[in-house]
Automatic annotation (TrEMBL):
It comes from the Eukaryota. Belongs to the serpin family. It is found in: Endoplasmic reticulum lumen. Keywords: Chaperone, Endoplasmic reticulum, Glycoprotein, Signal. This is Serpin H1. The keyword Signal applies. It comes from Xyrichtys novacula. PANTHER family: SERINE PROTEASE INHIBITOR, SERPIN, SERPIN H1. The keyword Signal applies. GO terms for molecular function: serine-type endopeptidase inhibitor activity. SUPFAM superfamilies: Serpins (SSF56574). One of its GO terms (biological process) is collagen fibril organization. It holds the Pfam family Serpin. Residues 1-18 form the signal peptide.
Length: 410
């Protein structure tokens, strides 16, 4: 009797822990998997569209968050205003409910602090003009699926309207994004605002003492002073000799995603590289990575970048929602009185030396002999690629880090 009880207790305990392990590594649903993959296509088309624009230097976008904002438009839209979103997400056949739950599932998975050891704070808000009435159903569903809150804003006093948007963004990122916009062009529509703070934790840390000041060459004649961190270790590495660039892939904590750097051999405008950048090419490069000893030097980064994506999304096919005469966003307000006037997408991204402890047993062994050099002291493209879902959490380019101009060389 006594023995039997003990056995069943042990069995109970082991099945309980198996259940926790399974939930910690949940399998994505089919529609979330499809949307993850499609959001990676969106990453490249949106990046390419933005890179064409003159006058912007650094770019940071989170394609999975952009996909979510598109989902919000689909939730508020009717007829072709809504169906255009599905076309952009290549999800015409996905049912509405699955679109919203799938996008929510994807974002919850990739931003989970516990299973990924990442700091990724995402806040979303929909602003409408003071005349608008938000429908209860929409308020509830948009909160549930997209963690989006709502606010009316009176642009008759533009300065205080701008202040309140910027204050909200600062507050929701613990001060990391002090200002997301200096101006709003069109003040009569609905505005989606994403405010994010992202800080990855490396799978292998940099020693905090291995940091010094170096020059970062923005262009041949212009160098700024930045903090660079250095480390030698094993990493995914590939040298593409034909295209004259080096690719480095560094896993983030828990190895569920990695940060991929695309660095041309020498300082040059990034256009040449950007022309090559497609999902297919990235997959080819990823397939060529080999575990290699690399002596890497990366700038410590703290960037705040804000984009209005409205125009870019319309160029990718979201033509109705942004058009005052055609937009039907009546699921938001019960009337055909709204159009999408801006999509502010703002991120503060920081990376430094923090990460998991290094496996010291490798030092002094042959493995680290003759490391490849990866010295990121000039403009590069970076991506945070997710292994588990195949989505792209961030894509961007670092062209102009913060830092004092250094003395011109003769
Ligand atoms: C990541 O893990 C480290 C070490 O366990 C911990 O100190 C840190 O707070 C974690 N960060 C996040 C964002 O979970
Ligand atoms: C949007 O409107 C359509 C048609 O009136 C309705 O069937 C649908 O349930 C609405 N969606 C939401 C999220 O309220």
């Amino acid at each position: 009797m006594w023995m039997i009880k003990l056995v069943s207790l042990v069995l109970l305990a082991s099945s309980a822990s198996a259940a926790t392990a399974a939930s910690a590594d949940k399998v994505l649903s089919n529609h979330a998997t499809l949307l993850a993959d499609n959001s990676a296509n969106l990453a490249f088309s949106l990046y390419q569209n933005m890179a064409k624009e003159k006058g912007i230097d650094n770019i940071i976008i989170s394609p999975v968050v952009v996909a979510s904002s598109l989902g919000l438009v689909a939730l508020g839209g009717k007829a072709s205003t809504a169906s255009q979103v599905k076309t952009i997400l290549n999800a015409a056949k996905v049912k509405d409910e699955q679109l919203h739950s799938g996008l929510a599932e994807l974002l919850t998975e990739v931003s989970d602090q516990k299973t990924r050891n990442v700091t990724w704070k995402i806040s979303n808000r929909l602003y409408g003009p003071s005349s608008v009435n938000f429908v209860d159903d929409f308020v509830k569903s948009s909160k549930k699926h997209y963690n989006c809150d709502h606010s009316k804003i009176n642009f008759r006093d533009k300065k205080s309207a701008l202040n309140s948007i910027n204050e909200w963004a600062a507050k929701s990122t613990d001060g990391k994004l002090p200002e997301i916009t200096k101006d709003v062009e069109k003040t009569d529509g609905a505005m989606i605002v994403n405010a994010m703070f992202f800080k990855p934790h490396w799978d292998e840390q940099f020693h905090h003492q291995m940091v010094d000041n170096r020059g970062f060459m923005v262009s041949r004649g212009f160098t700024v002073s930045v903090e660079m961190m250095h480390r030698t270790g094993m990493c995914g590495f590939y040298e593409d000799k034909t295209n004259k660039l080096n690719i480095l892939s560094m896993p983030l904590a828990h190895k569920k995603s990695s940060m991929v750097f695309l660095l041309p051999y020498h300082v040059e405008p990034l256009e040449r590289l950007e022309k090559l950048l497609t999902k297919k090419q990235l997959n080819t490069w990823m397939g060529q990575l080999k575990e290699t000893a690399v002596a890497m030097s990366l700038p410590k980064v703290s960037l705040e970048v804000s984009h209005d994506l409205q125009k870019h999304l319309s160029e990718l096919g979201l033509t109705e929602a942004v058009d005052k005469a055609k937009a039907d966003l009546s699921n938001i307000s019960g009337k055909k009185d709204l159009y999408l006037s801006s999509v502010f997408h703002a991120s503060a991204v920081e990376w430094g030396t923090d990460g998991n402890a290094i496996d010291n047993s490798i030092f002094g062994t042959d493995k680290l002999k003759n490391p490849k050099l990866f010295y990121a002291d000039h403009p590069f493209i970076f991506l945070v690629k997710d292994q588990k879902t195949n989505s792209i959490l961030f894509i961007g380019r670092m062209v102009r880090p913060k830092g004092e101009k250094m003395r011109d060389e003769l």
